[in-house]
Design brief:
Layout: E1 7-16, H1 20-31, E2 34-39, E3 48-55, E4 58-65, H2 71-79, E5 82-90, H3 93-102, E6 107-116, E7 119-127, E8 133-138, E9 151-152, E10 164-173, H4 179-190, E11 193-194, E12 202-204, E13 209-216, E14 223-230, H5 237-245, E15 249-257, H6 260-269, H7 281-289, H8 296-302, E16 305-309, E17 312-318, E18 329-336, H9 343-359
Parallel strand pairs: 1-4, 5-8, 10-14, 15-18
Antiparallel strand pairs: 1-5, 2-3, 2-9, 3-4, 6-7, 7-8, 10-15, 11-13, 12-13, 13-14, 16-17, 17-18
The structure holds fe (ii) ion.
Residues 169, 171, 252, 254, 331, 341 line the site of fe (ii) ion.
Length: 363
């Protein structure tokens, strides 16, 4: 057996979308991302256009295909705008790929050495749930803006950054009965370990339910929860996702901020929609969570949820779906010691999700 593969953290997330130019514009003007790099016809890439956005340690890439028979176009036609690649930064992309494949992963991209005037990057990739892949990126010693083939972008900031610092976790939705297999996949293939904290329980309301398992790197640089639908009285939000997305995929990305009140206020001012929180939530939350170093008025005004575990508390909020299909959305999270995922909020959140689902006629 080859030595265990070392994942340093998330390298970035690539969205495959219908119109990368407009998607990138929204993330720049609403979230305050910086356009760091670009590849497309103007840089000699004929079949696609990719925009690389950065904020803090966070990197999003938006890609569109430019021809009907392009993989990106087919992916988008089937799944809608969504996430294709959750990339990890590794110390050795060739060894990571070899170790993963030896343990049973299917290859998505053989190790490839790419080079330009800024240095060398080695990239490989494996398949995971649905049509999603994990790239392994080895970028030590590379000084360019993203990857060889991308050119630095000369573009103004469209809005101030909102304080996003990093990816906190990436959640996948898989079919009924598949959660355990995918949890085992992340343990066996990537060497992640089960994170025992509320997460093995059923999370359910009267209408919908899910089961969730979390795998992590033991440090907190990588956390990968996996959801599957559970039996409920009505169609669960996970089933709605699986229908709309036509199969498993990334359900949400949680983005870390050190000041969620300022982050959410800026995003609301710029027109971003969040899930409504029932009024009754805050009285219940104050009883459940107790003292926090945040003003409850701010939290209630902005719809920020609060949860507590043994290690501290956390603040979180969920956006509406980012595209017309009810598939991927974002979470913003500020951890004040807490290491969990807001299990205490799930019930309150589900009530809000189901209200939106009912409005779409899917409940
Ligand atoms: Fe989350």
């Amino acid at each position: 057996m080859t030595s265990p593969l070392t994942i340093r953290g998330y390298d970035g997330v690539e969205f495959w979308v219908g119109n990368a130019k407009q998607a990138a514009h929204v993330y720049r003007s609403v979230f305050g991302f910086r356009l760091a790099a670009y590849a497309g016809p103007e840089t000699g890439v004929r079949d696609r256009a990719s925009y690389v956005l950065q904020q803090g340690d966070l990197r999003f890439v938006f890609t569109s295909g430019l021809r009907a028979d392009h993989d990106v176009v087919r992916h988008q036609a089937r799944h809608g705008d969504g996430i294709h690649d959750v990339a990890f930064e590794v110390t050795d992309a060739e060894q990571a790929h070899a170790a993963a494949v030896e343990r049973g992963a299917r290859t998505a991209c053989e190790p490839e050495r790419r080079e330009d005037a800024h240095g060398v990057v080695v990239v490989s990739a494996i398949e995971t749930y649905g049509d999603t892949i994990h790239s392994f990126v080895q970028r030590d010693g590379y000084a360019g803006p993203y990857l060889p083939g991308y050119e630095p972008a000369d573009a103004p900031m469209l809005a101030p950054p909102v304080g996003l610092t990093a990816i906190d976790h990436v959640v996948g939705n898989v079919e009924v009965g598949a959660m355990d297999d995918w949890a085992a996949f992340y343990e066996r293939i990537l060497g992640l370990t089960p994170f025992h904290h509320f997460t093995d329980e059923d999370i359910s309301t009267e209408y919908s339910a899910l089961m969730s398992k979390v795998l992590w790197d033991g440090v907190g640089n990588v956390r990968m929860p996996i959801n599957e639908p559970a039996e409920g009285r009505r169609r669960s939000q996970i089933e709605e996702y699986l229908d709309a997305h036509d199969g498993p995929g990334v359900q949400h990305l949680a983005l870390a901020t050190d000041d969620i009140v300022t982050t959410v206020r800026a995003l609301r001012d710029r027109g971003l929609g969040f899930l409504d929180v029932p009024h009754e939530y805050y009285a219940e939350a104050r009883r459940r969570v107790g003292e926090v170093d945040h003003a409850w008025n701010d939290l209630a005004e902005l719809g920020i949820l609060v949860d507590r575990d043994d290690a501290g508390y956390l603040l979180q909020i969920f956006t509406e779906p980012l595209q017309d299909r009810p598939t991927v959305f974002l979470e913003l999270i500020q951890r004040e010691g807490a290491t969990g995922f807001g299990a205490g909020n799930f019930k309150a959140l589900f009530a809000a999700v189901e209200r939106a689902q009912r409005e779409r006629g899917n409940l």
